[in-house]
Amino acid sequence: MIQAVRGTKDILPDTIDTWYFLEETARIISELYGYRELRTPSFEKTEVFSRGVGEGTDIVNKEMYTFLDKGGESITLRPEMTASLVRAVIQSGTYQQNSVSKYWYFAPFYRYERPQKGRLRQFHQFGAECISSPYPESDVEIIQLTHSFIQALGIEEYKLMLNSLGNSASRDVYRNALIEFLKDNKENLTEDSRNRLEINPLRVLDSKAENDIVIVKNAPIILDYLDNESKDHFEKVKSLLDSLGIGYEITPKLVRGLDYYCHTVFEFQSSALGAQDSFGGGGRYNTLFSQLGGKETPAVGFAMGVERLILILESLNKLPKTEAEADVFVVSLNLDFQAYAANIAQILRAKGLKTATDLQRRSMKAQMREANKCGAKYAVIIGDSEFENKQITIKNLSESSQETIGIELIPEYDFKF
Ligand code: HAM
Q1: Which of the listed residues 61, 122, 308 should we mutate to test ligand 1's pocket, taking the one with most ligand atoms within 8 A of CB?
Q2: Which structural domains are found in the chain, ordered by start?
Q3: Model confidence over 249-294: pLDDT tens digits?
Q4: pTM attached to this predicted model
Q5: Which among 49, 66, 242, 405 is least surrounded, fewest beta carbons within 10 Å?
């Protein structure tokens, strides 16, 4: 038997209602905030991500599905959306200074990571990006949108971790201070962190290794290095969140795993998840447009992992109920009634009722069993007398009541659900 590729999952019909619920909620909430959906191809030229996400990141170094296509071009399956979306917006030429454009997406992404609970090689994200506002109001709108979405799903307990990486001037000063500190402790750092020290020292703060955690505890924190502009931005974000009643936890070591961030960064955590407890994150990125060849344009956004949201909903027992396959099952007692049964089914579907018919040429008893199995509330029975008199018998399967009506009355008949 050929198995699916490790770290990928089929979404079978018995769980599809959860996906419809998440997709629909994502769409409704995004539209309430004035965001419009943008879809991009699932693969891009590799440089979109190597330049966008950053050469020093785990995503680019270790996790990308990259291959040469038959024309010899280096192609990468998108590991995230922000760089693709910015590429698409630059290409379409639709962004302007002083005019905000807002996008959302719900799509599959690809990262070659070690699969475990909540970590897949093809996973899905719901995300949104707000382009062209440099102001903290847009950081907060993005966080507010995530808050509305999480609430709409019925998730009440989660942590919003918040930090500022400041502008590039603040970050440079901090970077030097951090390098100095880490160099003094270099021999105790893991090899991974020693390597990061040179290329991407902020990522050492993110290390999950015991040794590194002990050292990093005493490291300088970026919030002490913010200049006035960066401080003002962060203070405004916090005060707006306060006035909206959105709780957060200042997390000075939160740096995120992608290179494009500045100023506000944030992450969502849930105790319902195991080791992979972060179910989403985002932040401001003011240099990504110019890095990808566009005009310098400030922007902010977030993405949430859909599979991780499903794990949370599952643990809270809040997955939506699976919809019945059919509302009505047409039971036909004789093979000669096939065309009649198919026509009746059409009339029922025209009423908006999900209608199934017998496709296995089974006995009446077996058809009634099937009606129950597919969750139908009604069986519409076609026997000799119904066939001859242009009638149907409607049996309410939960009440065991039934009545016979002429087919001309089907459009008005009140099926109760
Ligand atoms: P990210 O933190 O790399 O950010 O991913 C966001 C979320 O996607 C994670 O919190 C997690 O829930 C989910 N995720 C990531 N990798 C996997 C995986 N291998 N398996 C399952 N779920 C996963 C970004 O991707 C940024 N583009 C977010 C952003 C948008 N920043 C600004 N705008």
Answers
A1: 308
A2: 16-167+227-315 (3.30.930.10), 168-221 (no CATH), 328-412 (3.40.50.800)
A3: 999 999 998 999 999 999 999 998 877 789 999 999 999 999 999 9
A4: 0.94
A5: 242
